[in-house]
Design a protein that fits this description.
mainly beta; Neuraminidase; 2 domains; four-stranded antiparallel β-sheet; F-box-assoc_dom_typ1; F-box-assoc_interact_dom; F-box domain-containing protein
Length: 378
């Protein structure tokens, strides 16, 4: 016993050794361990330690049983949903947190819109980059724009395996009589320089001129899906964009609907549902070279209705696809049914209830955002 106490004291007195041990602990555990002592608080709060931990853990693991829930147009704000705990006010550390809305989740960081409504993007507004694990945030304003310009999209790009710094991409389009607008400006904000640079791309074909389009980050590019199911992708470092308009051999949105779109396991995934068979659908995967979509999984939810009769035709309960880059992990699909969130294994077809909910309101993939633990600085 005395030897164990002496060994613990020896480690505690050796700050370099203590740092090396702490670097191997999960981010959420380290946040809790700040209360152990002033020494631990000083070490774990140090930006250099946070950077080292982020570099050592560049791919934060997504917790499939914990995510953020953001309802567009409500005043209650986002919720944090977990099988362990739930919180209706997860962003109370932000000044004036009323009316914030989550726009995107990217490798542990969140992009928030700091206003009560997303109805109009023609007035000045502020955004936040938030690390919900550490309760850190950074608020910024969009780059200056002309009176005729409209904000078409704002998207976050963060990949700690490539850089500790994140970027924000803002798409501005001038209002013209033609569709789409002829004049596009792309603003790129860097957390390294804390400044914007704006470049023109007059030939860029963007999905919409009237509605805000959320972006999805994947492998160095921001990706946007149009309502007609074609994909625009913009390589941030190379400064070039491309369009994928072929849709897996079908008659595009005429016969099928695209009701879930996101990144998982380093790939873009899309859920495509036949309008006549809403409980039968395909999970598509985009090739990393953007050569086209392919069917990754075929799903039939009808057998699930025995265990979960709440699933019925006409209900769009998809939250997101979860696929780990490690092929040993089982890919899963998270679904929301009244008062429950369940996980459907795309390989062995097994079902597992993840957590209970206090609401039966129908939500979809635009309302749910990944939760990942990271100490990344904002």
């Amino acid at each position: 016993m005395q030897n164990s106490i002496a060994a613990a004291e020896s480690i505690g007195n050796n700050e370099d050794l203590l740092k090396q041990l702490l670097l191997h602990l999960p981010a959420q555990s380290l946040v809790r361990f700040k209360c152990v002592s002033k020494q631990w608080l000083s070490i774990i709060s140090n930006p250099n330690f946070c950077d080292s931990h982020t570099l050592q853990n560049p791919n934060p693991k997504f917790s499939s049983a914990a995510f953020f829930w953001s309802r567009t147009g409500t005043t209650t704000g986002p919720h944090f949903i977990s099988h362990v705990r739930s919180s209706k006010r997860p962003f109370n550390f932000i000044p004036d947190p009323q009316g914030i809305e989550i726009l995107q989740s990217c490798n542990g960081l969140l992009l928030l819109l700091c206003r009560s409504s997303i109805e109009s993007f023609t007035t000045p507004r502020k955004f936040c980059i938030v690390n919900p694990t550490t309760s850190q945030y950074f608020q910024f304003a969009l780059p200056p724009k002309s009176k005729s310009a409209r904000v078409l999209s704002v998207a976050l790009a963060f990949d700690p395996s490539k850089s500790l710094h994140y970027k924000v991409v803002c798409i501005l389009g001038s209002v013209t009589a033609r569709f789409p607008p002829l004049h596009i400006e792309i603003g790129i904000y860097s957390s390294q320089t804390r400044s914007w640079r704006v470049c023109e791309s007059n030939d860029m074909w963007f999905p919409s001129t009237g509605n805000f389009v959320p972006g999805v980050y994947c492998n160095g590019s921001i990706n946007w899906l149009s309502r007609f199911c074609w994909l625009v992708h913009y390589d941030i470092d190379a400064g070039r964009y491309g369009v994928v308009d072929e849709f897996c051999g079908d008659n595009r949105a005429v016969e099928r609907d695209c009701i879930c779109f996101g990144e998982s396991g380093g790939n873009l995934h899309l859920i495509q549902v036949k309008s006549s068979l809403l409980n039968q659908f395909d999970v598509l995967e985009m090739a990393r070279d953007y050569s086209g979509w392919s069917v990754k999984y075929r799903v039939d939810l009808n057998p699930m209705r025995v265990a979960f009769p709440e699933i019925h035709a006409g209900y769009y309960p998809f939250l997101f696809v979860h696929v780990e880059e490690n092929e040993k992990e089982n890919p899963s699909l998270l679904l929301h049914i009244p008062y429950k969130v369940i996980s459907y294994n795309l390989r062995d077809k097994s079902i597992k209830k993840l957590c209970d909910l206090v609401t039966s309101s129908q939500v979809g993939w635009r309302d749910a955002y990944h939760y990942m633990e990271t100490l990344a600085c904002v």
